[in-house]
Specification:
tt1808, chain A; single chain; 5 helices; 23% strand; eight-stranded mixed beta sheet; 35% helix
């Protein structure tokens, strides 16, 4: 599977026989945000220093937000940045960000199941949803199950969109979040992390 061959969701739906739905399935799950984090991020937003490159978006906006939400879940979940995945020639790629089960062997070991794939773009988010969905399909294969949800997040730093692949259905969340409404955005991210955390906590996921 060569991910950049799939530029639209429609291409993937046809090839892999995936059902497509839309709705608002992400309830707000409040998260505690430190004042220091808010002040620092607001400075970055106001000065717009993240617009220079995709790398700047990752470092200045995406990772700080993901890390802030992830902190309470770090005993069960690991947040990876640009970690190469090489389970096989067809499924090898480098996701921008990845949420996985924390390995019992230690924090340096990449373990599955993989729960969340984050795709960052410098352009419009619609342009990379095909690539993100291709990565979600590959993630299902690595996890060796279609019955548990895998979440996708696509962002250009300002706009954030969410999707969920479960079984053969891809559900794209209708609501679009922005960093101008940071509390709502982080509550949405927190819902996903909390969902994944409960999967691990209850040991309901079997791979």
């Amino acid at each position: 599977m060569i991910f950049n061959n799939y530029t639209t969701i429609g291409n993937l739906i046809n090839k892999f026989h995936i059902n497509y739905t839309e709705g608002n399935y992400i309830p707000a799950t409040k998260v505690k945000i430190s004042k220091y984090f808010l002040v620092d991020l607001q400075l970055v937003i106001n000065d717009r220093v993240f617009e220079n490159s995709q790398e700047a978006i990752c470092e200045s906006i995406i990772y700080p937000i993901l890390k802030e939400v992830w902190k309470p879940y770090r005993k069960k979940l690991t947040l990876w940045s640009h970690q190469p995945l090489s389970p096989g020639n067809e499924l090898s790629w480098v996701p921008d960000y990845l949420i996985t089960k924390q390995s019992p062997l230690g924090r340096v070991v990449l373990d599955n199941p993989y729960f969340v794939i984050v795709k960052v773009t410098q352009n419009g988010v619609n342009e990379v949803w095909g690539e993100c969905l291709a990565q979600l399909i590959a993630t299902q294969r690595i996890n060796c199950t279609k019955e548990k949800a895998v979440f996708g997040i696509v962002s250009n730093g300002i706009t954030w969109e969410f999707g969920r692949l479960k079984s053969n259905t891809f559900a794209k969340n209708n609501k679009i979040y922005t960093i101008r409404e940071l509390d709502k955005l982080m509550a949405a991210i927190n819902y996903i992390f909390h969902y994944c955390y409960l999967e691990m906590e209850s040991q309901e996921v079997v791979y």
